[in-house]
Inverse folding.
């Protein structure tokens, strides 16, 4: 699993959910500090789970709400 490739998948989901803020968001930016609310964040996680065919660990991604964390969790889930 190539990190840049998975990150692109996660970013594509984010662009679909929040196109107005997608361009200014870096992988390690906190999604909540960047304007996402809990509803938007859950929509993103469900979108990533569907697109990547994985189940994400909710506690972990809520504790560190970043595209980079979601990407790492996708990679780890695909290894299982």
């Amino acid at each position: 699993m190539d990190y840049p490739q998975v990150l692109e998948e996660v970013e594509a989901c984010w662009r679909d959910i929040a196109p107005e803020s997608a361009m200014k968001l870096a992988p390690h930016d906190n999604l909540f500090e960047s304007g996402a609310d809990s509803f938007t964040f859950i929509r993103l996680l469900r979108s990533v789970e569907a697109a990547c065919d994985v189940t994400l660990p909710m506690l972990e991604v809520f504790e560190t709400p970043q595209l980079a964390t979601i990407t790492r969790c996708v990679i780890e889930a695909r290894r299982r």
About this structure: The chain has a mean pLDDT of 93. The chain is about 65% helix and 0% strand. The chain has one domain: 3-18+28-79. The CA atoms of residues 36 and 47 lie 15 Å apart.
